[in-house]
Amino acid sequence: MKKPDNPQDEQARLETLRSLSILDTPPEERFDRLTRMAKRLFGVPIALVSLIDENRQWFKSCFGLSVSETSRDISFCGHAILGNDLFIIPNTIEDERFADNPLVLNDPFIRFYAGCPLSAPNGRKLGTLCIIDHQPRSFGKEDLEALKDLASMVERELSAVQQATLDELTNISNRRGFMMLAQYSLHLCAREKISASMVFMDLDKFKPINDTFGHAEGDQALIAFTEQMKATCRDADIYARLGGDEFVMLLINTSKEHAENIVARLRQSVEQYNQEAKRGYGITFSHGITEFNPERQHTIEAMLADGDSLMYALKKSKG
Prior knowledge:
By secondary structure, the protein is an alpha+beta fold. Helices cover 44% and strands 21% of the residues. A six-stranded antiparallel beta sheet has the order 3-2-1-6-5-4. A four-stranded antiparallel beta sheet has the order 8-9-7-10, with helices on both faces. β8 and β9 form a beta hairpin. The protein is elongated.
């Protein structure tokens, strides 16, 4: 048996999947409807929407199986997400990669598999829409197109889930998306004893920009600040627009002192933008930093509250 390899973008792929906050959620008709269509259209006993987590494949929608997940190491879908095209095994017994797979030798006795990779809007592979039969079978051109069409419909539903966690203006995480991603990261930091710091930020004198230059220019200022923040953060950091002119960064493996250095770099980057853009106003911001203490701060809400208080104290001192 051949275990599936990890995609080259595995870490970013997992972050995209977790940002949906869809894992371990109850069944939804919008996904079940599509797996029912696949099951009926192809006349197969099993149809799944399978999402590939770090160590498992979890079924958002499942018809024909009594389990909700299996190990990623024995998954067919783990192989399917390594490519862009449909992954088809006409006869598993004749394929050395799968002939001795537990899912072939034991229940559900897979003999045929066809899986179409499901991509997020950013291109990261999340899992598959797949069909499974207990008998070997061929798969023609019309079958390929039909499964692709159904997979596209699943991708649209996944995109709708993601849109609920993205800020429409800046295209980064919104409050809901940040809370979900950051809480997962804090659990990891607590378990692995990794440091983390949160930076709560609020743009200074943002209302006068809107009042003087118009709301379109205010939007441009928010987008410009977002771009500087994104450029300053590292791959493992999480950042978001909480709402209005409030932003946040969760800096992983970062002490409070190091976080201050990162904020200083961000401030320098914003000042350089102001000088080059010459839009008639300058973007400035106040911030508060709180270092993660797992014994005192069990939730993201607690860290946000601390950072918010520190930020507003600084803002008030500016007058």
